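Bench log, entry 3. Co-assembly request; chain sequences pasted below exactly as received.
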Amino acid sequence: MSELSVQLANALPNNSGVRPAWLKVIRDKGAEQFRLQGLPTRKDEAWKYTGLSVLDQAGLQLASASALPSSGSSAPSPLAESRLQLNLLDGQFAAQIGEVPAGLTVLPLADAVERGVNGLQAMLESLSDKHPKATTGHGFSALNSATLESGVLIHVAAGMDAGRINLIWSTVQNEKPLLFNSRICLMLEKGAKLELLEQFESPDDNANTSNIIMQAELAQAAGLLHIRFQHESENAALVTRTEVSQQEDSDYTHYGFDLGGGLVRHDLHTSLLGSGAKSVINGAYLLDGNRHVDNHTRVDHMAPGGYSNQYYRGVAGGSGRAVFNTAVYVHPGADGTEARQSNANILLSARAEIDTKPEFEIYADEVIASHGATVGQLDEQAVFYMRSRGLSEQAARQLLTTAFCQSVSDKLADKSLAETISQRMMDVMPQAE
Amino acid sequence: MSIMLKITDLHAKVAGKEILKGLNLELEAGEIHAIMGPNGAGKSTLGYVLAGREGYEVTRGEILFNGKNLLEMEPEARACEGVFLAFQYPVEIPGVNNTYFLRTALNAQRKYRGEEILDSVGFLRLVREKLEVLHIGDELLHRAVNEGFSGGEKKRNEIFQMAVLEPTLAILDETDSGLDIDALKTVAEGVNRLRSKDRGMIVVTHYQRLLDYIVPDKVHVLADGRLVATGGAELALKLEEQGYAWLEDGGIASLNVASAVQTANP
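Structure output for the full assembly:
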C-alpha cells in the first residue's frame, strides 16, 4: 500500500457513534476493505494505465465530512437554466436555488438516512455487491463507503417529469489539498423523468480531489438524461463512479464532457435488468498539458431486447493521456440485445497517448453487436483541402478537431446547450504540434 | 490582353520522382485552356503544384500569377489571391457543415482582401443566388462537406464552391471523371456560367467528352511532364479519335490537325 493509502486509512473516522446500525455496517465494511486494499495501483487491471503518483505527491488529506463546508467560495455559473439548482460545496449539500415541485424530493443524504427514505438503505447496501471483479469495487469506492455521510438524495415520484436539475460541484482550496467524498442517490419511480446536468469546475489553483459516487435506480419506463460537464483545474483530481440500475423499458442517456482536470477517472456502469431497457452513453474528452483522463464504461445486458450505444470521441495534444475502456456483457437470456460501441481518437502531438480498449462478451442469442476503436491523426488531405479554399492551417485544424468533438454535443436535444458546450470545447481545444 | 498565368520551365518532383519536366504555359484572362494527356503525364501534379500541396516539390522554373510569384505563397494565400483547384477526388470532412465551411472560407478570403465579412444572412442570400444559377438543389448545404456524397454530388459541390468563391483562376482537375452524362452536363453548365473576361480556367481532362460542353480556347497535350502540342478545340477531337499513340510514332504531324503546333519533342 502506498504511503497515501496508509495515511488515509489512519484518518478514517471512528464509527462508534454512527446510527442507524445499517449505516455503521456499511461504513465499517468500507473501512475494512479500504484498510485491506488501499487505493488502486497499476497492478490492478482496471488501473493499469492510470497511476496515482500525483496524488501521493500532493500530500492529500482526508476531509472530514462533519466539518462545515467552507464559505466564501462562489459556485460556477450554470451552463444552462433550470428550475432547480443544487450546489454541492466540498462534497456537501450547500445550497438549493429554485423551487422543488410536488412529487420531487431533494434531501441532504444525512437527512434522507435519518428519515429512513424507503429503499435508500437497500440502495446504499447494494453498492459493494455490484460486480466486484469488473471496473468497480476499487479502493475509492471503499473509501467513499467508509466515510458515507455527505451527498444528496433525489427522488422523483411515479409519472412525474421533474425537468432539469443543475448539480453544481465546487471545492475550496485550503492550505493543504483535501480529498472529499460524496454520494448522490437518484430514485426514479415508474415512468418518472429527470434531466440532471452536473457541472464540475474549479479555479486554477485548486488541487483537491473529489471522490464521488452516483447511484441511480430507474424503475419501469423511467427516463434519466444525465449530462456531466467537467472543467476542473489542471491540478485537481476527480474520481467518480456512476452506477445505474435499469428496470423494464427504462431509458438512461449519458453525456460526459471532459475539458479539464489533472487526473480524471470515471467509472460508468449500467445494468439493464429489465427487458427493453436502453442505455445510450456518449462522451468527449479533450486533453493537453500533462492531463490524464480515464473513462471506464461497462454495460451489463441482463434481460432480453435491451439496447446500448456508446459513442466517445477524444482529442489529445501536448503530453496528455487518455484512457478509454468499454466493456459490454450480454448475459445468458439477454436475447435480442443490440449493443454498439464506437470510440475514435485524434492525437495532435507525438507525446500524447491514447489507450482504447473495447471488450465484448456475449452469452445470448440473436445479438446485434458492433464496435470500432481508432486512434489517428488529423486527416492531412482534409487540412490541405480546407487551406486550398482559403482557411489558414490553424483554422483548418481547429475546425476539424472541433467538428470531431461536436459530433458528441450535436446529439443533445437541447440545441442551445449543445452550442454552449461546443463553444466551451472550442475554447480549450488542444493545438496541433 | 493580359497574361494572368505564366508558367516557365516548371520542373516538379513527387516522392523523389520527377513528374513535371519543363512545362511552359501562358494563360490570358478570359481564356479557357484544356490540358489533355495520357495517364501519368503529370496532369494532376500540375493542379496540385498550382494549389500548393505539400509533397509536390518544385525543383526548377517559376509560376507568375498576375505578376506575383505563386510558388512563394502558402496554399491559403493562393486561394485568397484567387486560385481555385476543383479536386479530382474532393475530400470528405465529417462533422463540418458544408455551408459553415464555405462561409468560413469565403470570409477568410474577404478578410485577406480587406473586404467586409459576410454574416450568415448575407451569406445565405449569396448561396441561394448561386444555387439558382447553377440549378443545384439546397440539399448539399445541410450536410457535412462531401461526406457520403455520390461522385456526381462531390463534383457539383466543387463547382458550387467555385461559384461562391469566384476565383480569378480555376483549375478543374478531371472534374468529368466518374460522371454520367447528366451530371457532366450540370458541371459543364456550371463552368460555362462562370466564364468571364476576368477569369481564367484550366480544364484538365483525360477524355474529350467534357469539351463538347465546355469549348476551350486552347487545347494542350501534356505528355511526360511537358506540353508537347497546342491547338484549337479540334485538337481534342483528333485526340479522341486517335488516342495518344502518335506521341510515340512521329509527333503531332501524324495527327493532321491544321491549327496544332508541336511545342516540344515528345
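The interface with chain B takes residues 379-382, 384-393, 395, 399-400, 403-404, 406-407, 410 of chain A (CB under 8 Å). Residues 3-428 of chain A form one domain.
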